[in-house]
């Protein structure tokens, strides 16, 4: 708040790490705006709307703040002004901007500037180096607040890799698809005409599916387009009657003769049992990008020698059920299966003290968010994180390498921007003197 009032900029960016508590300062800004007779607009990911709505109910006394979750683009400005807070999603804002973009460019007095690249080619961001890196860091530090996680006292986090071997058949199929993916990329780079309409992503997705469970390729070919991202929650809900029946039959077949088993599932169950032996009262999050792999995980847990009941938080769970699921888990603990695309990994789940990441995620920040959902203010137990990694799986190695490369520059940048309360932001000369 101090920075907002005393900065040359109109506002500030609160960029604390996951779990440090950005919600409370945001609510304070909203409260101050209400006191001055102003309204606030809060834009979050679509999957976080439920959590933010709940936070407003928790932070403010009943009937003291009017919150609208904006999903209807036809609402008038007069209607919106009846509310103290407009809560909406990035996806909603993006859609509305795209619809109005052509109109905005024609309005001479509009205080909106649209930057066009002047080319049909897609742009790619490149991290600056040397002096450019330092100048960018200084620019961001002038309006950004990012405190280190050590600002608050939290229990320790223990992270480890649960390494295992795919069976010979699993490795052969998965690695074959991965090698096909690399081959198609090379041919496309050479502009080979026969590969013009070939999609390398399809091979990459099949490599991932074979590495998780052999039956995933079959069900995914029926349910999702080959180009769909694994973490895209829009495909979690099946609407076609024929596909629903195929999915039901597929699930039923998984329970027959232990068809739910695969090397990755076996490793998950073995590590889960190991952790439960250490702490019978542990509460567990199991995270994966594929809701269909989580279907298999659920069947596997229900077919254990001592069956384990699980809760689900994914794209198939409706709004009201999601809230009940979170409340039940926070109250009773147990095992909660979470799909990355549903946004569940960003929720406050301090009841969890054990996290399984079934496959290496593409970005380290996604893993950080997943861990931060449990390792945050309110957690009073150490948090144990297990990443399942196939030692002979080229797909797992590819994901891990990409994640490490992407995280390298991000970590370097965040380390410079981190500063404790009361510490002045670095200036360009200091950065240059430090060798940046």
TrEMBL record:
InterPro entries: Helicase_ATP-bd, Helicase_C-like, P-loop_NTPase, SNF2-like_sf, SNF2/RAD54-like_C, SNF2_N, SNF2_RAD54_helicase_TF. One of its GO terms (cellular component) is nucleus. SUPFAM superfamilies: P-loop containing nucleoside triphosphate hydrolases. It holds the Pfam family Helicase_C. GO terms for biological process: DNA repair. Keywords: ATP-binding, Helicase, Hydrolase, Nucleotide-binding. Residues 3-99 form the Helicase ATP-binding domain. Gene3D superfamilies: P-loop containing nucleotide triphosphate hydrolases, Tandem AAA-ATPase domain. It comes from the Eukaryota. PROSITE patterns: HELICASE_ATP_BIND_1. Residues 397-436 are annotated as: Disordered. The keyword ATP-binding applies. GO terms for molecular function: ATP binding; ATP-dependent activity, acting on DNA; helicase activity; hydrolase activity. The keyword Hydrolase applies. PANTHER family: HELICASE-LIKE TRANSCRIPTION FACTOR, TRANSCRIPTION TERMINATION FACTOR 2-RELATED. This is Helicase ATP-binding domain-containing protein.
């Amino acid at each position: 708040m101090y920075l907002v009032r005393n900065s040359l900029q109109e506002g500030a960016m609160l960029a604390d790490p996951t779990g440090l508590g950005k919600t409370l300062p945001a609510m304070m800004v909203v409260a101050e705006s209400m006191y001055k007779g102003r309204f606030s607009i809060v834009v979050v990911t679509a999957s976080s709307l439920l959590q933010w709505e709940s936070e407003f109910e928790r932070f403010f006394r009943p009937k003291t703040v009017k919150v609208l979750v904006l999903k209807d683009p036809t609402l008038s400005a007069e209607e919106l002004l009846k509310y103290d807070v407009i809560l909406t999603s990035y996806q909603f804002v993006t859609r509305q901007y795209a619809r109005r973009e052509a109109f905005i460019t024609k309005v001479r007095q509009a205080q909106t500037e649209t930057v066009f690249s002047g080319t049909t080619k897609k742009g790619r961001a490149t991290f600056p180096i040397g002096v450019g890196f330092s100048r960018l860091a200084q620019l961001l530090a002038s309006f950004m607040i990012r405190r280190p996680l050590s600002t608050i006292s939290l229990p320790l986090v223990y992270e480890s890799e649960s390494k295992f071997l795919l069976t010979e058949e699993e490795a052969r199929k998965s690695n074959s698809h991965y090698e096909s993916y690399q081959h198609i990329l090379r041919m496309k780079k050479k502009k080979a005409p026969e590969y013009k309409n070939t999609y390398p992503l399809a091979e990459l997705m099949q490599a991932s599916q074979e590495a998780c469970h052999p039956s995933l390729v079959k069900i995914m070919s029926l349910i999702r387009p080959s180009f769909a991202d694994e973490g895209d929650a829009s495909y979690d809900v099946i609407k076609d009657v024929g596909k629903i029946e195929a999915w039901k039959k597929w699930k039923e077949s998984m329970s027959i003769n232990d068809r739910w088993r695969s090397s990755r599932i076996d490793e998950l169950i073995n590590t889960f049992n190991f952790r439960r032996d250490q702490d019978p009262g542990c509460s567990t999050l199991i995270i994966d990008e594929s809701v269909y792999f989580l279907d298999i995980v659920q069947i596997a847990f229900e077919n254990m020698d001592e069956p384990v009941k699980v809760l689900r938080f994914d794209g198939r769970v409706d709004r009201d059920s999601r809230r009940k699921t979170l409340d039940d888990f926070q109250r009773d603990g147990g095992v909660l299966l979470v799909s990355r695309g549903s946004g569940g990994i960003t929720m406050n789940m301090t009841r969890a003290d054990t996290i399984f990441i079934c496959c290496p995620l593409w970005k380290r920040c996604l893993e950080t968010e997943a861990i931060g959902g449990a390792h945050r203010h309110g957690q009073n137990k150490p948090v144990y994180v297990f990443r399942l990694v196939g030692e002979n799986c080229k797909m797992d190695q590819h994901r891990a390498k990409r994640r490490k490369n992407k995280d390298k520059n991000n970590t370097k940048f965040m380390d410079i921007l981190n500063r404790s309360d009361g510490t002045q932001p670095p200036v360009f000369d200091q950065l240059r003197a430090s060798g940046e």
